[in-house]
Amino acid sequence: MAKKIKDTDYLAISTRIRAMENGLLTRERMEQVLDARTDDEAVKILQECGYPELDPTHPEAMDAALAAAREATLADLADSAPDPRYIDIFKLKYDYHNAKAILKADAMGIDPDRLLMDMGRVPAAELKEAVRTGSFEELPACLAAAVAEAKEVLDTTRDPQLGDIVLDRWCYRDLGSVAEETGSAFLRGYVQVQIDAANLRTLVRTIRMGKNADFLRGVLFEGGEISPGAILSVSTAGGSGMAELYAPTRFQAAAEAGAEALRGGAMTEFEKLCDDAVGDYLSGAQFVPFGEAPLLGYLAARETEYTNLRILLLGRSTGLSADVIRARLRASYV
């Protein structure tokens, strides 16, 4: 029987993470990047923070550099994490991204390589080969079932959107399964808040697109704080009652922005506030002295930081005003 992992097993890594949090980009540091006179000056500020040279005029190279920084962080902490599943939880979504790209490319008879992101639990080349041969035995159980079902749906319907829906549903099911296996209440809460964010986004998008409740029913995920049934009631009412439904939750501000988006407002603020609500949950890790929560909170904070760096640098390079860029930045952990 495997040894049960206790909170105290995280004493050493929690102490290290507290020190590493000092290296996260603060809002003040991001303001320095935003106010830099030139793009070169902005890049130099980030290099002083430990980042490689990030050239926003070459987005693909910049994304590759950020991906390398992300992988280095995950590899570094994997060596000292008592349970590797807390590292895998941040890799899992890339397995499903790759599965979507591979299955679509296979259906179209093209090569998916340029769309693949080698940041998942399963090397992209291995996943591609598994799809080619139909041998899913070596894949993680949920991923294997997901790929098999999505492939069958694609082969039957030739509708890539339906294949994506299958994979998205399995992705959240996989996240939930990992959370249950670890026994971590904090991780279960993290998965739940991600599902709530995804369902709220889907609610607003489907209403804006003129889709009916039957379509929405097929794309909502189970496992959030707000039930699919309650969300469907709001959809049937054309969005009426959305702000009230989410008022007792951390998604109150996001739902109000979503209601505004349904009246013709922009989606940018709504999308940002959905992400900020997830970040609000994770910020609670700062008050946990040790355990898996500080590890999860720090890794999620880094994910948000990478998103903000892209917004900052690409926004500057395309000539967006400082106020517009600032409004798009996700709430930082520190």
Provide the structure class: mainly alpha
Strand content: under 5%
Main beta sheet: none
Number of strand elements: 0
Work out the radius of gyration: 21 Å
As a percent range, the share of helical residues equals 55-70%
Overall outline: globular
Low-pLDDT sequence parts = none
Number of helical segments? Answer: 17
Order of helices and strands: HHHHHHHHHHHHHHHHH
Distance between the termini: 40 Å
Mean pLDDT: 90
Q: Give the number of domains.
A: 3
Keywords:
mainly alpha, V-type ATP synthase subunit C fold, 3 domains
Task: Summarize, please.
This protein is 67% helix and 0% strand.
If you had to describe this structure to a student in words, what would you say it looks like?
The protein has 334 residues and is mostly helical. It folds into 3 domains: 120 residues; 100 residues, V-type ATP synthase subunit C fold (Up-down Bundle); 103 residues. Helix content is 67%, strand content 0%. It is built from 17 helices and no strands. The protein is globular and about 55 Å long. The two termini are 40 Å apart. The mean pLDDT is 90.
